Structure prediction request, 218 residues.
Amino acid sequence: MKNIPRIFIGNDAAAGMRIAATREMAHYLAHVMRTRDCIVFGGGHEFAGRLSDDGKYIDVGADTGRADPSGDITLYFAPIRRTDDLINMATQMGVARLVPVITDQTVAHHINWDRMRKIATEAAEQSNRCSVPDLAAPVKFSDLDLKGVAFADERAAHGAPTGVDAHGARAVIIGPEGGFSDDEFDALRRGGAVGISLGPTILRAELAAAVAISRMTQ
Prediction:
């Protein structure tokens, strides 16, 4: 299947469907990639696909049988100025759910979430996933159930001990550019969250997310 274009067609994708091809899809296949054959996917499955001769439809063929390489990790993240990069990286690394969290020091409040969904879809198409991560509506930090959630503890870069292995955790939370507030660190401790070190340097939030996900899945 190498080098065959991949197109997300929705979570209800199934063999035998005929779906309307958007102008963007038809142009991409016929004029950019110069092919009518493609892979279509959604809901954890992928299928052989073909653009109709008139360019109006994509016919969904047989399930390829390939397992979805995505994982089952939830990423809680404070919106940042480069939220698009964070979502791109997290999607490529296989997260299942993306949940924006408004923290005390969150400064990026005007995110175009429709654009972020498009970025997640494009990253899923590029990264050989069979699914696109769910992108939830923003929630307040105070509303989270923190028990067992791993969090990127930037204090470890200043010598604070963590001593905790996050392998096997199913959710991780990343703070904003300014990090978590003291009250939030207290809440993480009281709520049973698991602090993990991301190394001896302070990372940008989007890179911290990628490193934390990697630590959880290694």
